[in-house]
Amino acid sequence: MKRRSFLKLTAAGTTVVAGSSMLMASAGKPAVKKKPNILLIITDQQHIDTISALGCKYISTPAMDELANTGTSFLESYCPDPVCSPSRAAIFTGRMPSETGVYNNGASIRKSMPNMGEWFRDQAGYQTIYGGKWHLPGYTTPDVNGFEVLACGWSGPGSALDSSVSLACESWLRNKSDNQPFLMVASYIQPHDICEWLRLNVTSKGSRFEEIKNELPPLPENFNFNFEESEMYQNARKSREPALGNWSEDHWRYYRWSYFRNVEMVDAEIGRLLKTLKETGLRNDTIVVLTSDHGEGMGHHQTVRKSTTYDESAKVPLIISWPGKLKQKQVNKNDLVSGYDIMPTLCDLAEIQKPDKQVGLSLRPVLENSANLDREFVAMEANSNKAQMIRTKQFKYVAFNNGDEYFFDMKNDPGETINLKENVEYTNQLNLHRQTFKKWILGLDIDKRVPKENRWFVS
């Protein structure tokens, strides 16, 4: 008889159906609702338009499609910072990177701030399990505060690591024998391997893209743009592979094709976890969240990698699925959301108190009732480029520490090709966004470890 197919009797006399969301009470006692399990899946460097069920024509992602078809997909989903560690710190705390003190890769979360594992373990008795990349600080660590680490991360290729993460998580799930709720994080490297691809393909010498030329995806519409960029972005572009290798358009298309293949690799690992949840009877009791720490240039604005405030770096997938409990096959195109909303959302769904000073909102009203969020904007820091961004329903405002500003009409110019900063017709809107930005910044509890050059915006 399979372990999850029979009744277990506890010492207290309560009858438990393994894998069920309810504890059935003994005679005369009311039923006690079990907390939901949580599986948080984090990919690394995933562009938002890389899921076939959500419209990408150049990729096959059956596992992510399954999540999209059983949950809510947010199409206006922004990362807290387009760099790994700052964004991850915000996801795990519900606070901005400048508040956590993780303003760049290698910094650690402020000691006074509980991370998700510590909070769910201490507030609600969750088993908290971690597999894969941590990066707060360090990729490779057997010790993550608040979590039992199953498989350490590393700085090598995801093609070698990610399968070990899936295997460790799968083994733990198949051997789980009690009814205690769990919070499991599966943190994958892919599609971050595109960085190694870039290093190996600076030039087209030896490339075989002519063999698959008919399969190469087209260039994005904003591949060519004509406004003068911030000096910081210009300098970054000059130091990256396309400029160093003087790429042709076919080379750019080959890069995009290769990136999609890396996404498909991590999709296969996600599929293994979803299959395990179903085979162990845990799927309907488990909230699954899929997101990424930041995006990837993908040729938009002729960029590769991350770090910019453009949507290609700033936007990431966010799908939340809990079959039978939350709306299914819902595509939210209107609400602005962020990775810093994940912590308060999971607290709300698990019905536990959230930590103090959360900057995010619970997305539960959208997930359950398709309600609209009462939100004016989301914010993002880009500390590696010393920039700050707010995104309202129609506009994006970006301020750099050298005085540069961007102001884009995202409704009429979603590709961010026309900087409206000097357009007098938008002066009032620009000033309103400046004021909103300053008010937001003054409300943050910025960590003293953040260097002054990254705190210019508080002066």
The name of the CATH topology of the largest domain is Alkaline Phosphatase, subunit A
Strand content: 15-25%
Low-confidence stretches: 1-27
Domain count: the total is 2
Percent helix, as a range, is 25-40%
**How many DSSP H or I helices?**
13
Please report the total strand number as a whole number.
Answer: 18
Gyration radius, rounded: 22 Å
Structural class: alpha/beta
CATH superfamily of the largest domain: Alkaline Phosphatase, subunit A
Q: Main sheet?
A: 8 strands, mixed
The termini sit apart by: 67 Å
The CATH first-level class of the largest domain comes to Alpha Beta
Supply database-style keywords:
globular, single chain, 459 residues, alpha/beta, Alkaline Phosphatase, subunit A
Helix and strand arrangement:
Blueprint: E1 7-9, E2 15-17, E3 22-24, E4 32-33, E5 37-43, H1 62-69, E6 71-74, E7 77-78, H2 84-93, H3 97-100, H4 116-124, E8 127-132, E9 148-152, H5 158-175, E10 182-187, H6 194-200, H7 231-238, H8 241-245, H9 249-279, E11 286-292, H10 311-314, E12 318-321, E13 330-332, E14 337-338, H11 342-350, H12 364-369, E15 377-382, E16 387-392, E17 395-400, E18 405-409, H13 427-442
Parallel strand pairs: 5-10, 5-11, 6-13, 7-14, 8-9, 8-10
Antiparallel strand pairs: 1-2, 2-3, 3-4, 6-12, 11-12, 15-16, 16-17, 17-18
Helix pairs in contact: 5-9
